[in-house]
Specification:
heterodimer; A: 564 residues; alpha+beta; FAD/NAD(P)-binding domain; Flavocytochrome C3, Chain A, domain 1; seven-stranded mixed beta sheet; four-stranded antiparallel beta sheet; 15 helices; 20 strands; globular; B: 68 residues; two-stranded antiparallel sheet; 2 helices; 15% helix
Chain lengths: 564, 68
């Protein structure tokens, strides 16, 4: 038992950034470059050198409108058709594409390499699954050192970094967000930081549904992100969006990475079921994917018909990718050879993330949220399908916007007694003599998420999920017991996952249609219903009752043209 | 207790520098009483950061999906 009264460090900064991954580092750099005299602080759960989704780099920038190759207008059209299916805030995507090329150039200046052909032109490949005119938005990158480069750029500047520090809540009053609290997961030191502006860049919720392996960290999305920012922003009063959309891909089973066609659409692989019949899934339409999901059949990706030369090429791509470590290990440990062995594929877990999915805090093009003083960028902010480019472009904008806001603002005085109380609540699991381990609570919770929140869903299933969520919050969460500070951070994260589960359940219950195929399939409303549902589902906390309030907002086309 | 862990550290090779413990994105690693790194928490994502950072190539990454 750790029976220590929390020791609290009170610190002050001008701009506070929560999360030092791709978006957070970019925000810090931009904030510093905009106003070198302001104090910038990053709270990072791990270590900025290797933190976030990008620890070992990335092999492409997926959204770049290279002048002469593709246009922001085409990008907006593509996202509308291929990803958002009409439920879109077009300005967000336009700004992303419009600023993408300047971002590529900036990264190049810092030493990130991008592929060019013999004529010196960037090589653009498609980002969308369907046919979209002008789709050459993915620019391959020699970016395995990307995070090292980014963290070096942060270190070059006068930016304060608190590594190994989990943020547990935002500080807010009825007017604005004015800081955050957290603790060091190695030493247990509690910190309260007051700030003139706060940027949330803490990623999505990688630990949501359970992977088929039963291993809680064998997820596709980075499992260090447990929906921290979604939960904290919601509790501070921010409007949340698209939580009915869950990321739900066909992936390689028991490997937290997609292979084959999901990796590169040029591969001429075959998807077959257990009877050897061909299945349409990777390149299929939403209808094909739904059919594959509902059929319950076992699916395999087959490579054995390909010539040796093609197999070699495929292996070369995999074994050089940013996820090469698990991929190499997968084939080595399982003693598999794609020359003869088919690879099992299935709809693995579900996750919440704006980078590949749609979920997040509602933001404007300046990254402001609906709460004053709070900005959001990267996977935590609702810019559907923004990929890594979005984290960088909106990270930069967030840094600049937060600085503008901070310049005119004052730091609020922190109520020390209130912080002491908060710290004591966070530290409670360290004092209990008996209780449940956070990992055991998490496993139970995520099993319920898989069973009741993973498509196909129905109103009945969603209501069952809500009943369980209520019991988890009242019973399990209140009796967690931990042995050390690392484990205490897991207890905090369970609460984040729980909030995310409630947000997904309530949003899904609202949208009585199926819009995004396997990402929100409702068996009781299997059709898309444009007459009633060409709009967003939003969530907010009612601070009087503490209840989650669900509403809808209109879709917006460019230049604020509202679509009815 | 011994099934395979995902992060396997060669105790002979490990020089105790601690960089893997410092940078693991999931905070899985710690130093033991002999100043050698070991996998304390079964929460690895197989990102490979530790193997990339280790200056003496003492770390092998496996994909066992087994709990220690």
């Amino acid at each position: 038992m750790l029976t220590i009264k929390p020791e609290i460090d009170f610190i002050e900064t001008d701009v506070l950034i929560i999360g030092g991954g791709s978006a957070g580092c970019m925000a810090a750099i931009a904030a510093h470059d905009e106003a070198p005299n302001l104090k910038i602080t990053i709270l990072e759960k791990a270590h900025t050198r290797r933190s976030g989704t990008l620890a070992t780099g990335m092999d492409a920038l997926n959204v770049v409108a290279v002048p002469g190759l593709s246009t922001p207008e085409d990008y907006v059209k593509g996202v509308d058709l291929d990803h958002t299916h009409g439920v879109i805030d077009e300005d967000l995507h336009y700004v992303l594409a419009e600023k993408s090329f300047a971002m590529l150039k900036k990264l190049e200046e810092w030493g990130v390499g991008f592929e060019k052909d013999d004529a010196g032109q960037y090589v653009g490949t498609p980002v969308f699954y369907g046919d979209c005119p002008g789709d050459k938005f993915t620019i391959p990158m020699a970016g395995l050192d990307l995070k090292l480069i980014l963290s070096r750029e942060v270190l070059k500047r006068k930016i304060k970094i608190l590594n190994h520090t989990i943020t547990t809540s935002l500080l807010y009053d009825s007017e604005a967000v004015y800081g955050a609290c957290g603790f060091n997961i190695r030493t247990g030191k509690f910190i309260a930081c007051s700030a003139k502006a706060v940027i949330l860049a803490s990623g999505g919720c990688g630990r949501f549904g359970m992977p088929s392996s039963g291993y809680m960290y064998g997820t596709f999305d980075f499992p260090g992100n447990a929906g921290d920012g979604y939960s904290m922003a919601y509790r501070a009063g921010a409007r949340m969006r698209n939580f009915e959309y869950v990321q739900h891909f066909a992936e390689t089973k028991r490997l937290n990475v997609p292979l084959g066609k999901e990796y590169d659409t040029d591969f001429d692989t075959k998807m077959v079921n257990e009877r050897g019949e061909e299945v349409n899934v990777h390149e299929g339409s939403d209808e094909d994917n739904i059919q594959a999901l509902l059929s319950g059949q076992t699916m395999y990706e087959k490579f054995s018909h390909l010539p040796e030369e093609a197999i070699k090429q495929i292996e070369e791509v995999w074994f050089a990718s940013e996820r090469k470590h698990p991929i190499i290990s997968f084939f080595r440990e399982r003693k598999m050879d794609i020359r003869k062995d088919p690879v099992e594929v299935g709809f693995e877990e579900i996750a919440l993330c704006s980078g590949h999915g749609s979920t997040g805090i509602k933001v404007d093009t300046d990254t402001s949220t609906t709460v004053k003083g709070l900005y959001a960028c990267g996977d935590v902010a609702c810019v559907p399908n923004q990929y890594l480019t979005g984290a960088f472009v909106y990270g930069e904008i967030a840094g600049q916007s937060a600085v503008q806001y901070a310049k005119d603002g004052n730091t609020k005085k922190i109520d020390q007694a209130a912080i002491q109380k908060q710290a004591e609540i966070v530290f409670k699991p360290t004092e209990r003599a008996d209780g449940i381990k956070p990992n055991d609570v998490e496993r139970k919770l995520r099993t319920i998420i898989t069973e009741y929140l993973t498509p196909p869903r129905s109103a009945e299933k969603l209501k069952t999920a809500l009943q369980w969520i209520k019991r988890f919050s009242k019973e399990d969460v209140e009796c967690m017991k931990v042995e050390d500070w690392h484990e205490l951070s897991k207890a905090v994260e369970v609460r984040f996952i729980l909030d995310c589960a409630e947000m997904t359940a309530r949003s899904s219950l609202k949208r009585n249609e199926t819009r995004w195929g396997v990402s929100d399939y409702r068996s009781d409303f299997p059709e898309r219903d444009d007459a009633n549902w060409l709009k967003f589902v939003d969530l907010e906390m009612d601070h009087n009752s503490g209840e989650m309030v669900v509403s809808t907002s209109p879709v917006t086309r460019r230049e604020n043209q509202v679509v009815k | 207790m011994n099934s395979t862990t995902s992060v396997e550290i060669d105790k002979e090779e490990c020089n105790g520098c601690g960089i893997c413990v410092e940078i693991c994105p999931l905070d899985c690693l710690r130093m033991d009483e002999h100043e050698k790194a070991f996998m304390k928490y079964d929460e690895c994502w197989y990102c490979g950061s530790c193997t990339l950072e280790c200056p003496v190539d003492a770390i092998i990454l496996r994909l066992p999906y087994l709990i220690r």
